[in-house]
Design a protein that fits this description.
Blueprint (H helix, E strand, L loop, with lengths): L2 H8 L4 H20 L4 H22 L8 H16 L8 H13 L28 E5 L13 E10 L19 H23 L4 E4 L5 H9 L3 E3 L4 H11 L3 E2 L11 E11 L2 E7 L2
Parallel strand pairs: 2-3, 2-5, 3-4
Antiparallel strand pairs: 1-7, 2-6, 6-7
Helix pairs in contact: 1-2, 4-5, 6-7
GO cellular component, one term: cytoplasm
Protein name: CCT-eta
Family: Belongs to the TCP-1 chaperonin family.
Length: about 280
């Protein structure tokens, strides 16, 4: 089983085959070990067999040189369909092989394969799966006032934050008792500080705000009143994919927010897919 963690990052498929193959090799080697054959001789024989296998594979291999994009695409679809033949989705391999190839080819040469996100949704059929040319992630928790905000934008400008825009919550049914003006002023100042931060975000020109940390009800209502969409507690993976796809930078302070650090995409919408709502950024 130690083969699997090394095999998957390198090849990505064939984990069952490699385990069965390794088990069969050990089965064939066992009699020689019992007869006292030195391990070095056994290892030398295995390495010799490996070389013979590599020579045979190179002999059978088909060289791919100077193909047109259409021919290359058709070959990749065949390869993807072959890899899916032993999976649970083998009956829909024609459908998913085209989707997989389209996803890989849509990546820029400098972008790694982990930029392709896979989101699983309960319910519906396999053929209802779709490829989003951009970024999509599940809707995060939202406070009251969120429903007032628009759910779609054209020429979207995105503020990516690692800032908490929320007043610290107390325990359930907690109350604050203030016995002097100074204590009351501290409460007002805390809320005012949040409003100052949201004001600077609004002045930057952003109309979609994504933050890794919570965005409270005060900030949510502020953004909704100004026709801005916001989402807090966005997963780090989704925030980084959005940054790489749409540009911009993740900011840790509102003081440096300006149009140059905002991400951009042609279209944003929040849409119901199956039993979940998703935030979708297209044509980044």
């Amino acid at each position: 089983m130690q083969f699997v963690p090394r095999w998957v990052p390198e090849v990505g498929d064939g984990t069952t085959s490699v385990v069965l193959l390794a088990g069969e090799i050990l089965k064939q080697v066992k009699p020689f070990v019992e007869e006292g054959v030195h391990p070095r001789i056994i290892i030398k024989a295995i390495r010799k067999s490996l070389q013979l296998c590599m020579d045979k594979i190179n002999e059978m291999a088909i060289r791919i040189e100077k193909q047109s994009k259409e021919e290359q695409r058709a070959l990749l679809i065949k390869c993807a369909a072959t890899a899916m033949s032993s999976k649970l989705i083998h009956q829909q391999k024609d459908f998913f092989s085209k989707m997989v190839v389209e996803a890989v080819l849509s990546l820029d040469e400098l972008l790694p394969l982990n930029m392709i996100g896979i989101k699983k949704i309960t319910g519906g059929s396999l053929e209802a799966s779709q490829l989003v040319s951009g970024v999509a992630f599940k809707k995060t928790f939202s406070y009251a006032g969120f429903e007032m905000a628009p759910k779609s934008y054209n020429d979207c400008k995105i503020a990516l934050l690692n800032i908490e825009l929320e007043l610290k919550a107390e325990r359930d049914n907690a109350e604050i008792r203030v016995d002097n003006v100074k204590e009351y002023q501290k409460v007002v100042d805390a809320e005012w500080q949040t409003l100052q931060q949201t004001g600077k975000i609004h002045e930057s020109g952003a109309n979609v705000v994504l933050s890794k940390l919570p965005i409270g009800d005060v900030a949510t209502q502020y953004f909704a009143d100004r026709n801005m969409f916001c989402a807090g507690r966005v997963l780090d993976e989704d925030l980084k994919r959005t940054m790489k796809a749409c540009g911009g930078a993740v900011m840790t302070t509102v003081n440096d927010i300006n149009p140059k650090v905002l991400g951009k995409c042609d279209y944003f919408e929040e849409r119901q897919i199956g039993s979940e709502r998703f935030n979708i950024f297209k044509v980044c």
